[in-house]
UniProtKB/TrEMBL annotation:
GO cellular component: endoplasmic reticulum
Domain PPIase FKBP-type: 63-155
Enzyme kind, highest EC tier: isomerase
Annotated source species: Mystacornis crossleyi
Protein's UniProt name: peptidylprolyl isomerase
Length: 232
């Protein structure tokens, strides 16, 4: 089932540590069903900037990895249905912007936002959970949602040119099993988490299963760069 926020991501200053698991095309959040029709096309997200830092840079764009706290409210009665500060020991949430890991309205609302900025955004049903609602999240059908967002960090996302080049040791613009295997070992060593010995092979197999679309044993720049926010 989908939620309104990405699943657990611990806050880290070195985002390279998180890239190994983010290589997997498994959404941190399953994108919810979206309402169709002309209403969705005509609807707009209302954005109110509550605080704008004097130095507002960098600004978020599609494919960036964002770290933020936010609370969600029902516009109908002001009741709170989500608070990131009460989840995952209060850690801010990490997610990739603009790729469907959060509801469409949040992808729109958090574009061109800089670290330290705070926004209050109003999202119509067609850009949230539409006519179906989301019972598990206590969101009724046709609900307009309000989020209060505080953005902490804007980083290059896991599908960036920088991430690809970091793994592509020989610079041939394709990732071999050996290159990704070595990268996983390095990332596992950095984060220091205990894993079953089989975890490395399972993740490596899954990466190739979901990314090596032509089955040639390599992950090309095109196959890797699914978010297409940079040119390789």
């Amino acid at each position: 089932a989908a939620g309104t926020v990405p699943r657990r991501r611990p806050p880290r200053s070195d985002m390279g540590r998180g890239l190994s698991l983010l290589l997997l095309p498994l959404a941190l959040l399953a994108a919810p069903a979206r309402a169709g029709g002309t209403t969705a096309a005509a609807a707009e997200v209302q954005i109110e900037v509550l605080h704008l830092p004097e130095a507002c840079s960098p600004k978020s764009k599609k494919g960036d990895l964002l770290n933020a706290h936010y609370d969600g409210f029902l516009a109908s009665d002001g009741s709170k249905f989500y608070c990131s500060r009460t989840q995952n020991e209060g850690h801010p949430k990490w997610f990739v912007l603009g790729v469907g890991q959060v509801i469409k309205g949040l992808d729109i609302a958090m574009m061109n936002m800089c670290p330290g900025e705070k926004r209050k955004v109003t999202i119509p049903p067609s850009l949230a959970y539409g006519q179906q609602g989301y019972a598990q999240g206590k969101i009724p059908p046709n609900a307009t949602l309000i989020f209060e967002i505080e953005l902490y960090a804007v980083n290059k996302g896991p599908r960036s040119v920088e991430a690809f080049n970091q793994i592509d040791k020989d610079g041939d613009k394709k990732l071999s099993e050996l290159e990704i295997s070595q990268y996983l070992k390095e990332e596992f060593a950095r984060d220091g988490k205990k894993r079953h010995p089989s975890a490395h092979d399972e993740i490596l197999t899954d990466i190739f299963k979901k990314n090596d679309h032509d089955g040639d044993g390599f992950i090309s720049a095109k196959e890797y760069n699914v978010y297409q926010h940079d040119e390789l």
